[in-house]
């Protein structure tokens, strides 16, 4: 079974948690795409929801499908958020940000009662870190942050978009780091990274996830925290 089908299987299982009247956080990425498409269909069939988008790309897609997109300030609190991940471990810890939307994704997850992560089976890992950890940085500080992360042995690489620096929706930079051999605990690493001025957010989502739905073949495997 292909990863594409597994993404769809997970997305379709997750949208069952969305009910009329809810305020819903919409994630970003190729797995989230199938979830947004399915919610769009539910809305076209009469379901009434309000949604907060985690990226400009998601907002455009949701609006095109007729989903009522509001701001986070208008929503105040979200009933459920469904998002993808680059890696998920057995302790519901994630690496996110492959698609560059980690900052808004983490803000939305923090403000959501239920966070559901959907992924194909390849994203399920026993240890986080084969996927490079994305860090969002303020352009003024990016080069010095790279130097500091280099001194920590984290092999930082600034993300590029062709010949230009990749820019997030907030017009920040992304630096991808290698945490595979890092001997700090993930909580410790997260805390340390957040003490470096100019690091806005990291792609480590350690505490927000309640439910993980992995598409494995034709089956949706649901893991509850
Ligand atoms: C975007 C993300 C995505 O959820 C993550 O990159 C997974 O994307 P995909 O479903 O396309 O594999 O964190 O910032």
What does this structure look like?
The chain has 2 domains: 3-125 and 206-217, Rossmann fold (3-Layer(aba) Sandwich); 133-202, Alpha-Beta Plaits. The radius of gyration is 17 Å and the shape is globular. The chain has helices at residues 3-14, 30-44, 56-64, 72-75, 102-110, 142-151, 186-194, and strands at 23-26, 50-53, 68-69, 78-83, 87-88, 94-95, 112-120, 133-137, 157-158, 160-161, 164-165, 173-177, 199-202, 204-205, 211-216, 219-224. The strands form 4 sheets. The protein has a 7-stranded mixed β-sheet. The protein has a 4-stranded antiparallel β-sheet with strand order 9-12-8-13. Strands 5-6-14 form a 3-stranded antiparallel β-sheet, with no helix packed on it. The chain has 7 helices and 16 strands. The mean pLDDT is 98. With 225 residues, it is of the alpha/beta class.
| Shape descriptor | globular
Tally of contiguous helical segments:
7
For the record, the CATH architecture of the largest domain stands as 3-Layer(aba) Sandwich
Largest sheet data: 7 strands, mixed
The CATH topology assignment of the largest domain is Rossmann fold
- N-to-C SSE string, H for helix and E for strand: HEHEHEHEEEHEEHEEEEHEEEE
**Which cofactor or ligand species appear?**
ribulose-5-phosphate
Q: Order of strands in the sheet with the most strands?
A: 3-2-1-4-7-15-16
Mean pLDDT: 98
The top-level CATH class of the largest domain is Alpha Beta
